[in-house]
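User: For my dataset I need records formatted as: sequence, then structure tokens, nothing else. Please produce one.
Assistant:
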Amino acid sequence: MNSLNFLGKVVTAIIDRPIGSKHSNKYPNHIYPVNYGYIPNTISGDNEELDCYVLGVFEPVKEFTGTCIAIIRRINDDDDKLIITPDGKNFSDNEIYALTEFQERFFKTEIIRDPNYLYFNKNIPELSVTNLKNSLNFYKSAGFKIEYERPENKFAFISLGDVQFMLQELSDNDKWNLAPLTFPFGNGINFQIEVSDLSTIYDCLKSANYPIAFDIEENWYRNNNKLLGCKEFLVQDPDGYLFRFSQDLGSKNI
């Protein structure tokens, strides 16, 4: 049975391992911090019922009806897990990973969503830009994708992994800008964005002749008795907003 057929659907799960229960007598220290169960009358890749995690319910239950908001696919194990929540309750990918890590840490996994799914961060900066088309050329060169646009408003919502920005082209009746803007718009602030492939982004921006404020360099910053390392570079977008792309190098003791 294809687990993808359950995305966005209301399903009823039987909870055979409620919050606080042990995995088995063989693993008495493996305690379930969330309700865990299965969907009756289904067959998963392991020839047993399709399993599920129930998130957003904070007491043990025997049965639960909710919406499947995502699927955890175990890449190295043919055993998908549905993520079921109360109607209207949502969780980011990072939240799902954190809540299921007690068990999924033993597997290589990915989270599958509905193709139209978009999770909105709690903090999303909106940048006023002079020319939306020019700005989008820059951000696409840096690896951002356009999540959606409102061309009639000259507005775009963009993302790079978990990083999200809104772009709004300036207009004469813009109520959000309380004082005149002068170049560079980003003077006094830079946005640090953690990425996994710093060199590729650098090369794309460099080849497109965007102004690199400083080239890739290795820096270590003190955090109490540790040093946190990163490779990073600084670049200006067409309006002068500063972006510091950073790749983690781990930590070391002082």
